[in-house]
Each structure stands twice: as C-alpha cells, then as structure tokens.
Design a protein that fits this description.
Length: about 525
C-alpha cells in the first residue's frame, strides 16, 4: 500500500532529474540573473482559497477551559497551558509571588513525589518542559513524542492544579529568585531585561503592568499558604488555555477533559492549605501615568575583563496601544521601521541594517553602542519605547536623538522605506511561525487574549495595508502622551523628565539642550 502511494512521487522526482540533466549545459552558460528555462507545472493557489496547513480548532469545555490545537507533520509535538497570571495580578499578594510559582513548577505533586520522578516520566516520552512568567501570562509548555501526549499532559495538569509545596521547596524557590535578582545587574547581557522592567514601572506607576517583575524585596513575606492562595485565584479554568501543536483535536480534547478537573485540585480537596483570607485577583484596567526612574549607578564592574566600553543607558517611553486596538498593526510596522539593535549584528549584513535606528543613529554617531525600538502591547494598554546606550558623557545627546527620531516621523516616511518595513515585519512573522514552540505560543496567546485563533495571513494582509497616513497618525498618538524616562548608569548629564515633557509637548528639542 505504501509502495503504491509512493510511485507517483518517484515518477515526479525522475521527471525533475531528467529536466535538470537536459538543461545542465544551458544552465552552466546562463548568468544568475536569468531564470532557468524549466517548466513549472505547479498550480498557484487561487485568491480567497483557505491557506494550506492551517487547521486551528478551538473548543470550550463546560468548566470554561479553552482547548486549541493546530495539527502539523512530524513525530514530535508541543503542548502546554497559558494562564492569565504574572506580576500585573499581584496586587494584594506579596510582590514576587508569580516568580516563586514559576520556580516551583514541576516539583512534587499528588502523582509525583519529587522532581526526579517528574523528569523520569518526561524522559520516557522524550519530553522537555519549561515554565516562564511574563507581566500578564504564565506559560507552562512541553515538547514530546506524539505517543507521550497523555503522560506529559498528566505532568502539566499536576504541576498546575495538584502541586504539593512545603517550607523546604518554598525556601529553595526564594533562594533561586534572590540569586537571579542579585545576578542580573552584574550581567551586561541582562541590561535590556532590567531596562524593560523599569520602563514599565515608570510608565504605569504603582498599577497593573507597572508592578515590578525583578528586584523586589518582599519575598520574605511569602508563605506556603500565600502560594496556594494565589494559585486558587489565578489558576481557574476561565483564565486558562490549553494548546497543542501537532496533535489531533478530538483526541486532545478528550485527554484534557480527563486531566483538568478543578474538583481534584489541591486547594479544593485540601482547603486547609489556603490562608484565612485570599485577595481577589486585580482585574483593573492598566493606567498609563508616565514618569521617571533614574538609577545613577557605577557600571565600571561590567567592563572589567570584558571587551565592552563603559556605557550609560536611556529609555524613552510613550503610551502605546493594546493588542486589541485598531492601531496595533500600525504600531508594529512603526517598530519595524525604526528597528535597531547593537553595534555588532550577529548574522552579517542585511539583518535590520536598513532600519532607522541603524541608518540615522548608529551609522552617523560612532559613540552610540546600541539603539532599538520596542512595542509592548497588552490586553488593555501598552508602551512604545526607544532605547540607546552610549558613553556617560553622551547620554543626553542620545536622548536628544531618540526624541528627534519620534518627532521627525510627523513628516511621514518614503514609500520604499515603508514598503521595506512592512516586508520585513511580514517576513519576521512568517519565519518565526515555522518553529513549533513559537507557533504554540502564538496560538495559545491569541486564544487567551482574543478568544479565537487569528491566522498569520490575516495579520500579513493588515500589515500590507498600513499607509503613510497611518504612521503619521500613530506618531501623533504617541506624542500626545506624557513621556516616561529611565536612566541607568552614570546619568548625571541626562536631562530630567520635566525637560523631556516640554520637548515632547512643544515638539521642540531645545528644552533638552544644556
């Protein structure tokens, strides 16, 4: 049977080989700019036809849990759970509790007495697992062989709904988080992580997205009962999406229905593990405030024994939009247009080198070590940032250049530059989704945020429709907000927030000059 099915493909391969042999002499004489004289018998897909290989399905279980899948080829799959959790929901709980939950993942549970047992079960199915918390999402994910989906889902459901914590495991998690908090400032490659955390604190002061993810000092207050209390509020079916890439939908739904039963969760079967009073999850809308966070620090220790100059860092933030906003795609194109990165770009020329942060900042000012734009979007708000690193004596000049980059966008952009930014963004989107774990994360995040799965072709079409007037409109939207400012390192020469606010409000750089 298998042989009969393969005969047509063998014939096709033979025809291709014969065509190549017949045209070999011609091909050797033709320049690379001339197409080979070979017939292409493949039929193009008509416009409006459903894209090949897109078979996403979403099912909502009676308990409110959403299950989504997208089948793919191959022997290995990626499965996992996305939860509306993270530091933005820590109001009322000790700050840092979401990172403690992250470190406690895949420890002992009702079915597994130790972490060793968990990983022994994973090894049986060639499985690897991970748990990562962001500002608004907790992600438990695993990759394994197709035959091991049921066993791996068992591991995931146990670590999410049936964990067993004790004082020893909690203390170990606290030590791990404390070490990371102390280690991050000592690693030059971690500066971007810290700057991102700080600009959120400055932009959304003391609320939701602005709660700190790193460097908090309240972990000593966290008790075992607090962890269970947080899980009982955040790990509810209505706040969760279970996803699988490379699995059959109906069978996967059946597996999830067996393993994800809230009535069997640790805090339901053993209510004594909960504290006497559990705060409600903070569902308030993010409030962009604007603000300033200055960390005047000696960073000389980061350069000792390393080929890095002594740098200071500045971040300018302006109010962006949520991923549900009509301007979300336009903001993404704007970020692609500005682009940026470090002075050395691994991978060689062509990797974003035509973006403005390269052409107008790093290529013209040798003292700028890095410059990059980011668009951080959440369910209800966002912050658009531009970051630069330079020697301390040039840090205010770097801020002036960043503001200038935003101000000049009011004049619009050239058609070729905009087309390049759109093409690069589409390419980035499509190429990333070729990686199975990335496809999984994209799928579960969309179902978690939108309730359904939007295909990348939909976004590609929206990207292509972004015009010059859209760029001008979202630029004006940025400039209408109060700025946020973060300075890190030797920032004595960096202007204050009041001067920056005047420069943005009056569209005039003179307020930033000494």
């Amino acid at each position: 049977m298998l042989l009969r099915k393969s005969i047509p493909y063998i014939k096709i391969c033979r025809d291709i080989s014969a065509s190549v042999r017949n045209n070999k002499e011609i091909a050797q004489k033709l320049p690379l700019s001339v197409p080979l004289p070979m017939e292409n018998n493949s039929k193009s897909i008509e416009k409006g036809c459903p894209p090949m290989g897109r078979n996403s399905r979403v099912t909502r279980l009676p308990n409110g849990l959403k299950v989504c899948t997208e089948d793919t080829y191959g022997d290995f799959v990626t499965v996992g759970v996305a939860i509306e959790s993270g530091c933005r929901y820590e109001n009322g709980f000790p700050f840092g509790i979401s990172r403690i939950v992250e470190k406690l993942a895949y420890n002992s549970s009702e079915s597994f007495s130790s972490r060793d047992e968990v990983f022994a079960k994973l090894e049986e199915n060639s499985g690897i697992v991970d748990c990562q918390s962001t500002r608004d999402t907790m992600m438990y994910a695993a990759s394994c062989h197709r035959d091991g989906v049921d066993s791996v889902i068992h591991v995931l459901s146990d670590t999410i709904w049936k964990p067993i914590f004790d004082e020893q495991s909690l203390e170990q998690a606290k030590l791990t988080v404390s070490y990371e908090n102390q280690d991050l400032p000592n690693r030059i490659e971690a500066i971007e992580i810290l700057l991102t955390d700080w600009i959120h604190q400055a932009a959304f002061q003391n609320n939701t997205i602005g709660y700190p993810k790193f460097g908090n000092n309240s972990m000593d207050k966290i008790r075992v009962s607090d962890v269970y209390g947080f899980l009982s509020r955040a790990h509810t079916p209505q706040r969760m999406v279970v996803g699988g890439v490379g699995v059959g939908h109906d069978e996967f739904v059946s597996i999830i229905s067996r393993h994800f039963d809230l009535n069997k969760s640790t805090w339901t079967t053993q209510p004594t593990v909960l504290p006497a009073k559990i705060p409600e999850i903070d569902e308030s809308r993010a409030q962009y405030t604007g603000g300033e966070l200055r960390l005047d620090t000696d960073l000389t220790k980061l350069t000792i024994g390393k080929p890095y100059p002594l740098l200071s860092h500045v971040v300018l933030g302006l109010e962006g939009c949520s991923y549900k906003d009509e301007d979300f795609v336009a903001f993404c194109v704007l970020q692609s247009l500005l682009g940026g990165g470090g002075a050395f770009s691994a991978g060689g020329p062509g990797k974003g080198m035509y973006a403005r942060m390269y052409t107008e900042l790093m290529n013209r000012h040798h003292w700028i070590y890095s410059a990059i734009a980011h668009n951080h979007s959440y369910s209800d708000s966002g912050v658009f940032t531009v970051t630069a690193s330079s020697p301390p004596e040039n840090i205010n000049d770097a801020l002036i250049l960043l503001v200038h980059q935003i101000l000049q966008l009011q004049q619009g952009v050239e058609p070729t530059e905009l087309a390049r930014a759109r093409t690069q963004l589409r390419s980035h989107l499509m190429m990333n989704l070729e990686v199975r774990p990335v496809l999984f994360e994209d799928m579960v995040r969309q179902v978690l945020g939108h309730g359904d799965r939007k295909q990348p072709e939909e976004y590609a079409e929206k990207i292509e429709k972004v015009t010059n007037s859209d760029i001008i409109r979202v630029t004006e939207r940025l400039l209408a907000s109060k700025p946020s400012l973060v300075g890190y390192g030797d920032i004595k020469k960096l202007k204050d927030l009041r001067s920056l606010d005047q420069a943005v409000a009056k569209r005039d750089l003179k307020y930033l000059f000494n």
